[in-house]
Amino acid sequence: MKRKSVAGTTQYCCEIDGCNKVFSRSDHLARHKLNHNPDTFYSCKWEGCNKQFVRKDVKEKHENRHIIKNEKQKHIQAKRKSQGSSLKSTNSPLENISNTDFSDRNIPENKSDNMSPNKIRRRSTSFHLNNDEYTYNNGFMGNGVDSQMANTPDLCRDLEVLNNDSMNYMPEKNLLPTDLTQWLFKDDAFLNNTGELSPNFIFNGVDNYSSSLSMDAFAISPKFPHPNFQTYVDDQIISKLTLLIPSLSNNMDFGAVQIERSLEIYWSIFHVQYPILHRPSFYTPEVHPLLLLSIIMIGAGLSYHTGQDESQIFKDAHCLADTIAEPLRWLICSSDEFTSPAKSWIIQSLIILESYEFSCSNRKLHERAYLHHGLKIQLLRRSPLLGGDPLNKSNEDNELTEEQDLWKKWIEIESLKRAALVSFYIDTIRATIFGHEIILFAHQIKLSLPCDDMLWEMSSIDKNNLPPQTETPKFITALTKLLRKEKFEAPSLSRKILLAGLLTINYQMEQKDLQVSFLGWESVKETWKETIYMAIEEWREAICNGSCRDTKTAFYLPFSNDGTHPLSSRINDTQCKFPIYHIGQALMKINQYDCIIYAGAPSRMNVKTAERDYTAVEQRIKVWANSLAGRLSVVDCYLFLYEMLFAGDNDDMQLFYDPSRDPIFYRPNIVATSLFVVWAFNFSLQGPESSAYSNNEIQTSYLDANPVNLSEDGHSYIKRICETLKNKNNDNKLFNEHKKMYANSLNEIPNKHKLVGLLRLFKDRYINCNSSICREYSDLLENCIQRSLGRKRQY
Questions:
Q1: What is the rounded distance in angstroms from the CA atom of residue 336 to the CA atom of residue 340?
Q2: Tell me, what's the pLDDT at 390?
Q3: How far apart are CA 637 and CA 635, in angstroms?
Q4: pTM here?
Q5: What integer pLDDT is reported at residue 528 of this predicted model?
Q6: What is the helix (H) or strand (E) element at residue 481, kind and residue range?
Q7: Stretch 193-213: mean pLDDT
Q8: What's the CA gap between 370 and 367, in Å, rounded?
Q9: Which has the closest alpha carbon to 721: 614, 645, 615, 630?
């Protein structure tokens, strides 16, 4: 029964005789009624416990408490056995610290056996080191050296290239995955003394709350808008948008037909790669106008990448996109709702805007995106998602919204979480391919991974016929399993986020190396790259089923392959869908800055390249090219280019690749960077392939007007290299796990430096890109061509 209280708020009373309980929300009343008339009883499966529950989620929480208590007792017993013995870690930076008293930082240990999970999570763990007792509060030393290093501001990427002996990536004494995670995350509660994942870390915070919330929400069948409203616009919506950007009223492409097409392109290209919006509940009349503008902008910008002729709809789609992009950032920042904690539409709009600025626009907007790329991260840090106590091991998300409707609340929370995780992923990609400083590291992500893709995309949900639900693991829990080579399944978006996590660990360890080198502590530097390198290989084998070509592995496509998706994201496309995997592995051994400067970039990040810069880079490139690390880098790039130019394992079926039409974000950048890695490696070792253009006065246009006779074209070159690698190792196809064998065989392949045909294959196609950065790649490739044909001048 519903009634009004004295204060005017609605109250819901239980109508069962003798029960006088009153609730402020109808769903709470519905849940309470299960106690009177339960449909099903759920029994605890723990041995010796006969408790029954009327709600499945309450039963699962109860069982989790059994697990936590049991694991806690095991942990205490193992700890007692190890008391009195010294903990010796040859890989720890604390190895040389002794005779130092940190007892003033000790936190009294609570001896209660009835401790709640939250209290368990906040306990400190003591252990012995060199017969002196140290106490870590949540794994951090209060004012210790390593704590200071962990909080040092981001440094630039390490430019040091080690010699051949230290770059063999097969050291006798590696930093073990367990040691690496303990050092990196500095959390003795994260991994217990037995090397197992701590139950305190797995079962807490956001996982249980989100699981409970989703179960409550799925008890109600939602009524989502008709799918037509995902692309619907009318005169009222258009009028509202032109009030924000008046110049749109004069744009011939800002009509209902063009806007609806832009929205369709957004869902078919951008949403497939970055599903940050909940499509089933998307309703254009109620979407914030600035978010709608950002969607129209990216849709118009991607109209050149659909694989269809859009000229019948758009006159100049790129002009429409730029017209929106120019003022959009300032409109978002000047909005009354631009405050912390940020609403989901703010973060979503910034992600979409930055994706356009970085990948589809002119250099001015690209540079603006870089200057402001930390904005969304700072907003997220001022929210319960990433903010709060930095020593907490999980962040609660029940404070993210005050929404009372369960479905809207679940969608808002999941949307914000996805926005945060996608921001992390994109930040990592840009750090990899552009050399930007990374601002969000893996250990700062305390969230669970996104929910299952099918659940997120379901447009019709029947509470009586729900899909199977699995608990989403914590991000760091899943990341640690990868480092420990444990297999598990993950949906498409989670695969990308986990790969980003491994790459950020690489960058973070490089910063630690820089810091200890700066302090003169060379003795604590460890060979850790092999651990990360092999973890990324494990990611490919276990999480991606051994292939980075499979469309279904990279994207969730809920609709049939009906032609609405561009060719490169259809089921039968075999080109690489995870290019960041290949370039991440390649650039683990060589700096992106070195490749760009060696290829002839006159400046980087507005800093002009001096002669001394080029000389220093040239020396580093030579050391790298003569090492196994260099050969591994170029093998990764060869394998990637093979996946882009040939269908599957069929050497006879050539593929056409046009970066100006590529709908997969950042893949054109990665293709170009791979070409620079291949050219730098081979040119450094063998020099130019001919002296046809040794005259330094030759202009760029001269080569176009006077093409030389190429020894082989681009497809023939890649086919020859890869066929030789297979034959020398008796393989019937290319095996990713044989990369080291291929690297050892690379020196036996002749004429690897005859690259002009390969470079020209791509150079002519980058000229037509809308992105200024991609057009600049064309100039760099032209520079490499002329250097390979004998020109002496570097740039």
A1: 11
A2: 53
A3: 5
A4: 0.74
A5: 76
A6: helix 475-483
A7: 41
A8: 5
A9: 645
Does residue 431 lie within any of the structural domains?
A: yes
Nearest to 359 by CA among 313, 331, 321: 321
The stretch 261-270 carries a mean pLDDT of 96
What contacts 266, CB < 8 A, 6 or more positions away?
295, 296, 298, 299, 302
Check: CB of residue 725 under 8 Å from CB of residue 734: yes
Instruction: Assign 129 to helix, strand or coil.
Output: strand
CA distance 146 to 187: 12
SS3 call for 444: helix
**Residue 121's pLDDT is what?**
35
Query: d(Cα 791, Cα 561) in Å, to the nearest integer?
Result: 49
- Rg, C-alpha atoms of the chain: 29
Q: Is residue 470 part of a domain?
A: no
pLDDT of residue 130: 34
Report d(CA 119, CA 679) in Å as an integer: 57
- Paired with 211 in beta bridges are none
Q: Tokens representing 356?
A: 């356009």
Residue 47's contacts (CB-CB under 8 Å, 6 or more residues apart) are none
If you search the block for the tokens 């075999």, which residue do you land on? Answer: 574
| pLDDT tens profile 316-367 | 999 999 999 999 999 999 999 998 888 999 999 999 999 999 999 999 999 9
Phi and psi angles of residue 714, each rounded to the nearest 5 degrees, phi first:
-65, -45
- Last residue of a domain, which of 49, 71, 93? 71
Question: Domain end: 462, 494, 512, which one?
Answer: 462
Question: Taking CA 138 as the corner, what is the angle to CA 133 and CA 141, rounded to the nearest 5 degrees?
Answer: 55
- Report pLDDT for 76: 62
DSSP character for 190?
T
Confidence band for 263, pLDDT divided at 50, 70 and 90? very high
The neighbour count for residue 114, using CB atoms within 10 Å, is: 6
Convert the pLDDT of each residue in 449-485 to its tens digit.
Answer: 999 888 898 887 766 666 666 678 889 889 988 888 8
Average pLDDT along the chain: 77
In a domain, 140, yes or no: no
Question: Per-residue DSSP letters for 505-556?
Answer: HHHHHHHHHHHHHHTT-GGG----HHHHHHHHHHIIIIISTT-S--HHHH--
Contact 213, 413 (CB under 8 A): yes
Residues 280-312 pLDDT 10s? 999 999 999 999 999 999 999 999 999 899 999
Is the CB of residue 390 less than 8 Å from the CB of residue 11? no
Does residue 392 sit in helix, strand or coil? Answer: coil
Angle, helix 667-686 to helix 592-599, in steps of 10 degrees: 70
The residue behind tokens 């020209």 is 760
Cβ-count burial of 608 within 10 angstroms (0-12 exposed, 13-18 middle, 19+ buried)? exposed
DSSP run (H or E) holding 652: strand 650-654
Residue 249 domain flag = yes
Please name which of 670, 532, 525 lies closest in space to residue 592, comparing C-alpha atoms: 670
Q: Which DSSP string corresponds to 261-303?
A: HHHHHIIIIIHHH---S-GGG--GGGS-HHHHHHHHHHHHHGG
Residue 198 in this model has a pLDDT that exceeds 80: no
- DSSP 3-state helix, strand, coil percentages of the chain (rounded to 5)? 55, 5, 40
Distance CA 101, CA 250 (A): 72
The whole domain housing 320 covers 207-389+403-462
Number of domains in the chain: 3
Beta bridge partners of residue 481, listed in sequence order: none
Rounded Cα gap, residues 306 and 110, in angstroms: 61
